[in-house]
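Reminder to self: keep the SMILES exactly as supplied, no canonicalising. Ligand is 2-oxoglutaric acid.
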Amino acid sequence: MTIHQNLIAGEWVGSDAVRNVNPSDTNDVVGEYARASAGDTAAAIAAAKAAFPAWSRSGILERHAILRKTADEILARKDELGRLLSREEGKTLAEGIGETVRAGQIFDFFAGETLRLAGEVLPSVRPGIGVEITREPVGVVGIITPWNFPIAIPAWKIAPALAYGNTVVFKPADLVPGCAHAIVDILVRAGLPKGVLNLVMGKGSVVGQTILDSPDVDAITFTGSTGTGKRVAAASIEHNRKFQLEMGGKNPFVVLDDADLDVAVEATVNSAFFSTGQRCTAASRVIVTEGIHDRFVAAVAERLKGLVVDDALKAGTHVGPVVDESQLKQDTDYIEIGRKEGARLAFGGKLLTRGTPGFYLAPALFTEATNAMRIAREEIFGPVAAVIRVRDYDEALAVANDTPFGLSSGIATTSLKHATHFKRNAEAGMVMVNLPTAGVDFHVPFGGRKGSSHGPREQGRHAAEFYTTVKTAYTLA
Ligand SMILES: NC(=O)C1=CN([C@@H]2O[C@H](COP(=O)(O)OP(=O)(O)OC[C@H]3O[C@@H](n4cnc5c(N)ncnc54)[C@H](OP(=O)(O)O)[C@@H]3O)[C@@H](O)[C@H]2O)C=CC1
Ligand SMILES: O=C(O)CCC(=O)C(=O)O
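Structure tokens returned for the bound complex:
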């Protein structure tokens, strides 16, 4: 089997490789991927540092052409790349192709941003002096990504980093090196100069930690768990570098008595269970007012009965497997915790056997949960949701906001008054009305509040805030 190598200073290197398997069928080896050492990672950082002066001064047309070409190739190969994604991560083929298209659109968007770079010219408060405000690249950006969006998250970090003139050391999650390798290969063939983008696949404790500890990394953008996020923060403060964190969520979806039942059920099932619930924007707390509660729970259970949990690549599968054994254990441990806490398992929650050895779990719906239970407070990151019964809108809003997290939140209602009030008062970075909490646009800001996020927003033109640094220049006329 060919080894997919790391890219350091423009050279594909590495012979120490591991096999990556398909979570739908652990007998299926997706590929062999090189593992970078701490020394390889240091070499990648040095290469990015050496490439920075030239790349930061490169023409915007060159950057535009490379990003545009990358977008075109990703979009042209969406079926093949989407299939690779589903094979290594376990989301369904439709979800894998959808995510690949989103990655192509992100590269396209940031290709356009290179042509829209702008500054400001202002008069000084002192007569006879001019003031210019410009944005400059930050330097070497360390990009550390999770396994749950193996192509979209790397795309929404790599594309703006390069568009604004930074160089990159990219460390993808160990579970999903395939998509990472594929997009780096596309970018290099699109004409990226040597050293501008370096790929270091391997373990977080080795590769990731080397990036965190390096004084030559000027900024780190991270998506993943709260625990690792805190390490990124501590190391970055130590090195006085810029950092941006996207971490967990415990997102609420509120269903009011006046909701359209079909809309509420569809949004809940999508939010909680699609992509196997493995989205930081997934709704895992469904907060339902008394008047609709029983009808709503019955309708959700009915809808869940119709969901096919099976091999991600099979036609007709609605929910693929959990990503690996350790995440499956985390999910089933929490299902047991929920039972012991006194919540009622109204649907699913059992391990499933399919035609291939994979990590299959029936979507689990708890009812009679309270917001104090661990299943309502801690991120599970699987197809597990808890319904919490409340009296009215005011209590629903209070429960929705009673969480250490603040990424996304949603409401199902036909009341303009409640929708408007919820949009203004939900303590979250993103609010959805009659829509799932997950599944966001690629051209607008993405991010949260409280324990979910730190630093400037990702995506859209707001991404410039993290990937550039502002300079104010004064000139005596
Ligand atoms: N909000 C989100 O989008 C996500 C949240 N999670 C949450 O995190 C839990 C665990 O998932 P997991 O993938 O282990 O999350 P991690 O936070 O461990 O992984 C995210 C990234 O950080 C890397 N990493 C791990 N340790 C270090 C370190 N010491 N220094 C630098 N980088 C490091 C990982 O590498 P490697 O893969 O090699 O370990 C990976 O690339 C999930 O169950 C879920 O609750 C997970 C993924 C996404
Ligand atoms: O909901 C989405 O579209 C994005 C979710 C995401 O970025 C995540 O789960 O990490």
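Points to follow up:
The chain has a mean pLDDT of 98.
The longest strand covers residues 25-34.
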